[in-house]
């Protein structure tokens, strides 16, 4: 039995072109994530999908029950693959994720998904704090431009800054090609 699981975070319709909160490079990141998902399935390892819905109907995106809150077809779960519904940034907070991983004897995680600076970051840090060995596939993650104090930070820089921080102390950060070759 494998001790590795893939966590697919928030690859949902609202993050794609035409959605309520489109990310820079969402399609390219989802294509990489799809390759990692397929390889994980081929190995017979656990794939856990995380789906975010806000609790309010006036949410800016991921409105409960909306098409935008559904998992994007590029990352769709297969029958039998768990989908963890969350209402907060951290995939572990107030969800069954940790119990699910523990039930399967998981000690190593690979993380893909969105957004690099929010949910991917929060889940990766929490997983490391729980003692899991974590890898993040950086090109299978996406984010968007951010604004702070009148300064716009381009998505590529946001992504790089967060991946650098995760690589410093929380995870091994690799490309999809590196992950697939390992």
Automatic annotation (TrEMBL):
Q: A Pfam family name for this chain?
A: Isochorismatase
Q: Which Gene3D superfamilies match?
A: Isochorismatase-like (3.40.50.850)
Q: What is this protein called?
A: Cysteine hydrolase
Q: Which SUPFAM superfamilies match?
A: Isochorismatase-like hydrolases
InterPro entries, per the entry: Isochorismatase-like_dom, Isochorismatase-like_hydrls, Isochorismatase-like_sf
Per UniProt, which keywords does this protein have?
Hydrolase
Q: State the organism of origin.
A: Pseudomonas fontis
Show where the Isochorismatase-like domain sits: 5-155
PANTHER family linked? ISOCHORISMATASE HYDROLASE (PTHR43540:SF1), PEROXYUREIDOACRYLATE/UREIDOACRYLATE AMIDOHYDROLASE-RELATED (PTHR43540)
Q: Which GO terms describe its molecular function?
A: hydrolase activity
